[in-house]
Protein backbone atom coordinates (compact mmCIF):
# COMPACT_ATOMS: atom_id res chain seq x y z
CA UNK A 1 0.00 0.00 0.00
CA UNK A 2 1.26 3.51 -0.81
CA UNK A 3 1.06 6.24 1.85
CA UNK A 4 1.58 9.94 1.03
CA UNK A 5 3.70 11.94 3.48
CA UNK A 6 3.30 15.64 4.30
CA UNK A 7 5.93 17.41 6.42
CA UNK A 8 5.78 20.56 8.55
CA UNK A 9 9.12 22.36 9.11
CA UNK A 10 8.15 24.42 12.15
CA UNK A 11 5.02 24.81 14.25
CA UNK A 12 2.61 27.12 12.45
CA UNK A 13 3.96 26.32 8.96
CA UNK A 14 1.87 24.59 6.31
CA UNK A 15 2.35 20.88 5.76
CA UNK A 16 3.84 20.23 2.32
CA UNK A 17 3.97 17.00 0.36
CA UNK A 18 7.44 15.49 0.63
CA UNK A 19 6.97 12.04 -0.89
CA UNK A 20 5.49 8.66 -0.14
CA UNK A 21 6.29 5.35 1.54
CA UNK A 22 5.25 1.77 0.83
CA UNK A 23 3.96 -0.01 3.93
CA UNK A 24 1.43 -2.74 4.79
CA UNK A 25 -0.28 -0.78 7.60
CA UNK A 26 -0.50 2.62 9.28
CA UNK A 27 1.99 1.83 12.05
CA UNK A 28 4.70 0.81 9.59
CA UNK A 29 3.87 3.77 7.34
CA UNK A 30 4.41 6.17 10.26
CA UNK A 31 7.72 4.52 11.10
CA UNK A 32 8.94 4.55 7.48
CA UNK A 33 7.83 8.19 7.04
CA UNK A 34 9.75 9.21 10.14
CA UNK A 35 12.89 7.44 8.96
CA UNK A 36 12.72 8.53 5.31
CA UNK A 37 11.26 12.04 5.55
CA UNK A 38 11.56 13.23 9.15
CA UNK A 39 15.29 12.86 9.66
CA UNK A 40 16.67 14.74 6.66
CA UNK A 41 15.47 18.21 7.57
CA UNK A 42 14.19 19.87 10.75
CA UNK A 43 10.67 18.48 11.15
CA UNK A 44 7.90 19.51 13.52
CA UNK A 45 5.31 16.95 12.40
CA UNK A 46 4.39 14.48 9.66
CA UNK A 47 1.03 13.59 8.20
CA UNK A 48 0.81 10.12 6.69
CA UNK A 49 -2.27 9.38 4.56
CA UNK A 50 -3.28 6.38 2.43
CA UNK A 51 -2.92 7.40 -1.20
CA UNK A 52 -6.36 6.12 -2.15
CA UNK A 53 -7.95 8.30 0.57
CA UNK A 54 -6.75 11.55 -1.01
CA UNK A 55 -9.39 13.24 -3.15
CA UNK A 56 -9.05 16.05 -5.64
CA UNK A 57 -11.40 18.71 -6.93
CA UNK A 58 -10.07 20.48 -10.01
CA UNK A 59 -11.41 23.15 -12.34
CA UNK A 60 -13.25 20.60 -14.47
CA UNK A 61 -15.16 19.32 -11.43
CA UNK A 62 -16.04 22.66 -9.83
CA UNK A 63 -16.10 26.34 -10.63
CA UNK A 64 -13.82 27.90 -8.05
CA UNK A 65 -14.90 31.35 -6.94
CA UNK A 66 -18.47 30.88 -8.11
CA UNK A 67 -20.34 32.99 -10.60
CA UNK A 68 -21.58 35.68 -8.21
CA UNK A 69 -20.24 39.18 -8.78
CA UNK A 70 -18.17 39.97 -5.68
CA UNK A 71 -16.32 42.99 -6.99
CA UNK A 72 -17.42 44.91 -3.88
CA UNK A 73 -14.77 42.99 -1.95
CA UNK A 74 -11.91 44.66 -3.76
CA UNK A 75 -10.90 48.24 -3.03
CA UNK A 76 -10.25 49.02 -6.68
CA UNK A 77 -14.00 49.09 -7.32
CA UNK A 78 -14.65 51.97 -4.94
CA UNK A 79 -14.56 55.65 -5.81
CA UNK A 80 -12.28 57.03 -3.09
CA UNK A 81 -12.31 60.68 -4.18
CA UNK A 82 -15.42 61.75 -2.20
CA UNK A 83 -14.07 60.05 0.93
CA UNK A 84 -10.68 61.71 0.49
CA UNK A 85 -12.33 65.12 0.14
CA UNK A 86 -14.37 64.46 3.30
CA UNK A 87 -11.24 63.49 5.25
CA UNK A 88 -9.43 66.60 4.04
CA UNK A 89 -12.37 68.84 5.05
CA UNK A 90 -12.50 67.17 8.46
CA UNK A 91 -8.76 67.75 9.00
CA UNK A 92 -9.13 71.42 8.06
CA UNK A 93 -12.01 71.76 10.51
CA UNK A 94 -9.97 70.11 13.27
CA UNK A 95 -6.94 72.33 12.63
CA UNK A 96 -9.09 75.45 12.67
CA UNK A 97 -10.73 74.40 15.98
CA UNK A 98 -7.28 73.80 17.53
CA UNK A 99 -6.08 77.19 16.29
CA UNK A 100 -9.12 78.94 17.81
CA UNK A 101 -8.55 77.15 21.12
CA UNK A 102 -4.97 78.40 21.12
CA UNK A 103 -6.14 82.01 20.59
CA UNK A 104 -8.63 81.93 23.44
From TrEMBL:
Enzyme kind, highest EC tier: oxidoreductase
EC number: 1.14.13.149
Ranges for region Disordered: 83-104
Keyword Lyase carried by entry: no
Keywords from the UniProt entry: Oxidoreductase
Gene3D superfamilies: Phenylacetic acid degradation B
Ranges of biased composition (kind: Basic and acidic residues): 89-104
Keyword Oxidoreductase tagged: yes
GO MF annotation: an example: phenylacetyl-CoA 1,2-epoxidase activity
Positions of transmembrane segments: none
UniProt name for this protein: 1,2-phenylacetyl-CoA epoxidase subunit PaaB
Lineage: Archaea, Methanobacteriati, Methanobacteriota, Stenosarchaea group, Halobacteria
Amino acid sequence: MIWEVFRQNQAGDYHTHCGNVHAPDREMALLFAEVQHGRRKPTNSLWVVPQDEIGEVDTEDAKFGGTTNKSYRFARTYNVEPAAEEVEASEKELNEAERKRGEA
